[in-house]
Amino acid sequence: MAQPVQVTIPATGRKITVPTGLFINNEFVPSVDSKDTIETVNPATELVICSVAAASSADIDRAVAAARHAFNTTWGKNVTGFERSRLMNKLADLMERDAQALAELETLNNGKPVRVARDFDIGDSIQCIRYYAGWADKITGQTIEVDNKTKVAFTRHEPIGVCGQIIPWNYPINMWSWKVAPALAAGCTIVMKPSEVTPLTALKLSELFVEAGFPPGVLNTVPSLGSVGGAALASHLDVDKVAFTGSTLTGRKIMEAAARSNLKKVSLELGGKSPHIIFESADLEQAANWAALGILYNSGQDCTAGSRLFVQDTIYDRFTALLAEKARALKIGDGFGEDVSGGPVVSKAQYERVWSYIESGKAEGAKILNGGEKRQGKGFYVDPTIFTDVKPSMKIVREEIFGPVLAVAKFHTEEEAIALANDTTYGLGAGLHSNDANQCMRVSSALEAGTVWVNQYNMLNNNVPFGGKKQSGIGRELGSYGLEEYTSVKAVHWNFGEKLDWPF
Ligand SMILES: NC(=O)C1=CN([C@@H]2O[C@H](COP(=O)(O)OP(=O)(O)OC[C@H]3O[C@@H](n4cnc5c(N)ncnc54)[C@H](O)[C@@H]3O)[C@@H](O)[C@H]2O)C=CC1
Ligand code: BAL
Prior knowledge:
38% of the residues lie in helices and 22% in strands. By secondary structure, the protein is α/β, with parallel strands linked by helices.
């Protein structure tokens, strides 16, 4: 299978041609040895969209060989930073040109509102590529004086080499750009494995890669099951680095595979159970908006979802009433409606997983403030579900749900809020709302998380690093820190005068 198919966007009638082959060496090709395919589904209708080729481990070998050849002959060794920057900016221009069609395809496969896909996911992705295009010709090492007369050392920040990149289904285009942009800027070549749930936009973006004029082999796109293509990349002897976003369980497997194979560099962006604290001095209306956004954006399918909310006892009743209003005001529906703010969750598997948590919350005795009832009809919809009066031991408080399900608890003192917030194996995001600046400073220092939001939530910038502490990950994405993950520092020691006496 390598022939493109035409898919029709139900709401607009637009026909989009989608490549269905594996993208290797700038061509869409069938698998070398497998007839396996991946079926994609529209989560709003539960109807099949199309099937694409599934890469086997032999295909991963072929993609890695293409990436290695491009690294050694073009991108990694013979293409200047200026040229890398130019091509990256061209890609960003093409994404801007095709933003509406890309957004429609993203919505079809993922379910998120088309307005959100276009204005946030894709807008942010274009900016990410331009941000790192700006770095491509500015990667420099240091000159270090070793002694004043005869020796100097300098460092070179060299591209790591061939990178395996494994991304999830919650932000297919956005996670693609977070991974691809710094790797390209640094001079690395890529084998990209999109999620088997949402491979369509990664394939469509591969077409734009060719149109932008990138040399063959720089980016290779291999939709595949995680246990096949993902595992093959993580354990491949000729892959120099693997970058992953997804569950902590799979992150652990990837790290084990890297350790057992060639000790490739690993960066992991994993799960979370992020705390969000509302102190009594906060602007409650604003804090309720941010708390609702924190759990409902992307239908809660967000690694930094503020899924544990801690509210000071003095404002608890007022605040929870406000929060319920916010949840009820949000329009959930088919993502093709321009006024929709939340779509279905991505798949049947995710729908069942989220509902099993809702049932467990009910069984463990948490009170339901909003939602908690299944809808009739087609589509993997989960209405905003808010549990109050939760206990720290409950499953809905301890485990990542990855759906629009919030666990709310009360606290009395600042110390108590910090202790509750940090009572988790995760450490990705955290938020707090307070009008006391000293309190904001104290609490943001005490929270064990890679990102802390003060008087806002879930806002990210391409020039600010992002990543986790504890079991939420290793390494950073975005900003100059994200670029460092794709370079390897070489120290060159240079002698221009010292004679070595012999015997020494
Ligand atoms: N941190 C985040 O952004 C994400 C977290 N998750 C969490 O994981 C839960 C389960 O979702 P899944 O889709 O099953 O997550 P997952 O972590 O298994 O999938 C993410 C990616 O990893 C790949 N993968 C799976 N097994 C692999 C293996 N053995 N070796 C290499 N790659 C492999 C998948 O094909 C996909 O591309 C969600 O409910 C959520 O809690 C899921 C997606 C994103
Ligand atoms: N919100 C940052 C990326 C993620 O959810 O995976």
